[in-house]
Amino acid sequence: ATIYLKDYKEPDFLIKTVDLTVELGEADTIVTSRLDLARNNAAAKKLSLNGEYLELVSVAMDGRTLEAAEYEVDGKHLTLNIPAKTDGFHLDIKTRIKPQENTALEGLYKSSGNFCTQCEAQGFRRITYYLDRPDVMAVFTTTIIGDATRYPVMLSNGNLTAEKILSDGRKSVTWHDPHPKPAYLFALVAGDLAMVEDSFTTRSGRDIKLRIFVEKGNEDKCGHAMTSLKKSMKWDEEKYGREYDLDIFMIVAVSDFNMGAMENKGLNVFNSKYVLASPETATDADFDGIESVIAHEYFHNWTGNRITCRDWFQLTLKEGLTVFRDQQFSADMNSAAVQRIGDVQRLRAAQFPEDAGPLAHPIQPQSYVEINNFYTATVYEKGAEVIRMIHTLLGEEKFRKGMDLYFERHDGQAVTTEEFVSALEGGSGVDLTQFRRWYVTPGTPEITVNEKFDEKTGTYKLTLQQSNAKAGADFKPLHIPLRMGLLDENGKAIAFTEGPFKGKNSGVFDLTKKRETFTFAGLKSPPRASLFRGFSAPIKINQQMDDRDLAFFFAKDEDLFNRWDAGQRLANNIILKQIEKQDETAALPEAFMEAFADILADKDLDRAFTAAALTLPGEQDIAQKMPVVDVDAIHKVREGARRQIGLRFEEEWRRLYDECSCAAAPANQPESSSRKLKNTALTYLIATGKEDYVGLADRQYRASDNMTDSVAALSGLKDITHPVREALFADYYDKWQKDALVIDKWFMLQAMAVRASTIADVKALMDHPAFTLRNPNRMRSLIGAFASGNPVYFHERSGEGYRILSGVIAALNKTNPQIAARLVAPLGQWRRYDAERQGLMTAELEKILKLPDLSDHVYEMANKSLHN
Ligand code: ARG
Ligand code: ZN
């Protein structure tokens, strides 16, 4: 059944307090809850509690056990009649559940012998009958009872209030969380876990215990997570004035987890991928991922927990805002330009295709079948861009005033995005009336640029026109911040001579109309406009620029993001032209080679920036610019270009490789930046096709003391068939087979290999003893990486790639529908391919729709993919 935002109604009853007792057992687990309820709607006659996959043992109202005839239970609800005069009452509900059989990893489940929970969005209803909706906020007291030897660690939200051994020998612990919260923020963990402890003193002088729980043996891999946590706590105090509000903050790492992590109040549960790291086992990218996810979950304590969502249509209220905050944090901790480039790369890779395809939705969807399908790149990443635009329009100071008012006005409440925008307006004094359209508009806006220069008057006219392919007839222009600057023909900034940015080199202009012209007077020669600096809006730009124009910005723009982006646009244009020519050996234009040479020679740049600037757009990025995607041509031409660049600058790459390997890096260059550039050089050297460089990768792998260099060596060799490649992959498996996260990389690299045996390799890997569909990380590292990261073989002509994916979807539909549904999106892109592939892809979607016991999750994704 489809659920609509317009149907939202306040709850008929509220829950004031919950007393939960969870008796953990090997055969089953018994959950007893006492709910203290209050009437919220005078007319309500029935109370309908959510509950799924539960066995109801008993229910009592105000102390009297109810007869079976006095309530109704179906697969989704427990419904009671409530007499009209009853205002406040309590219920005692006992249910039986089987966490050890829970493969969906929602609600209470077991992972590696430990109990843990995932309740967002609607997992709590798999634990007990409840009003499982975010606008019902209650104070939770949780008692956990279980075998003290099996489960010496027993955790829940809030502060520990009691701990004892019962007369039967079992252990009982009680946790109390004073902050009223929705059930989706509930968490429980029990197991034989190791703990790493630290502390943080808040700016008001309170001492907070910080504890990270991991499987035994992983204690030495928590340092980076702990440091990241402390940095996050400090940053939120300084940047947003937000202090932590309990005496203890806990993080638990689990190896079976559907998503990245979860912000449960005071007890964050993490996919171990985002906690565990040492230089030997984790790449620099893994370290960055940990820093940002730890920050993200911590920041949710204010943006998500203290102020939560009224209903799930408001998801971007907490997710868009919190992603924006974690991006700001990472930009402050690292190179801001490199961070921004990464943010935009992720947006373009995942969100742009979503927004252009059958699963497009506004950041605030208007309807859904299964809410778990809406934890999307649009709600998260585009949602973050929307907050960033508010930040850009308001400026730092007014944005902070708006946020202050938001926290002041809504602390302790479950609110809507409308209330958020109003608070930002109220606090800043800036009118966001038109800006609100971003929340309800699907599709990526396209901006077409027209420039005119009048030699006689020295006047430059810049005209921008908005359109949106998804908007159709009811197109309404959006309020778009345009950060821009003008350059003279030498690349020098031209200061604005009038208006609000007079004397400045860069300013933010408001685009509010469908077509808008900005006039700049007093210019001697036609200026060059650097538009949407820092990617000031999540749009596509349509601007006539030839190779020389783009090379100019690539070499000169003072805005590093636009400098990088000009290089990407240049490379994209060139590759698309080579594809048209059907000639991957045609020489790359000199303008491009020269621009490349300039960046290669510039030693002042952050090496991570240089690496990003010297990396060609990915195959999927190029694909987005083709009317009909030709995966084979893209791969061939892009590889041809890499080979030419490798050969042309062979000497420079060797020099860079040596310079960046040298331990004595310049002080302003983080080690990770040097590794990034060194490994970029390595891939170009391998691209020359010369045997020497296979040897170089071999030596790098064998000498490496860190996972970044090891993986880079393997990745550089993954596409070739060569004894060195086979030897290194075998060595890696041997060496790391006991470390799941490290072996995930082994599966992933092979899933992304582009070589004749790939399909057979992927099938063989699915039969590998270390492969299992039950562990989401392992599944994603092979199947997810293959379907989303290997366009050439996923789209292989025979359709075998599609069949592999739909087979996995069918299997997971039964065991873990949430994860199964996430795999459908690549098939949903079928309209982008040739007729033959379209036929093969839609055939798999049809097959999926005919699966017996099709879950709502998979149904919604496959149905929309086929018919929208
Ligand atoms: N709120 C979590 C985060 O963004 C994500 C949880 C999503 N879980 C789910 N089952 N959809 O940090
Ligand atoms: Zn989040």
Automatic annotation (TrEMBL):
Keywords: Aminopeptidase, Hydrolase, Metal-binding, Metalloprotease, Protease, Zinc. Its cofactor is Zn(2+). It catalyses: Release of an N-terminal amino acid, Xaa-|-Yaa- from a peptide, amide or arylamide. Xaa is preferably Ala, but may be most amino acids including Pro (slow action). When a terminal hydrophobic residue is followed by a prolyl residue, the two may be released as an intact Xaa-Pro dipeptide. The keyword Hydrolase applies. NCBIfam families: pepN_proteo. Belongs to the peptidase M1 family. This is Aminopeptidase N. It comes from Sneathiella chungangensis.
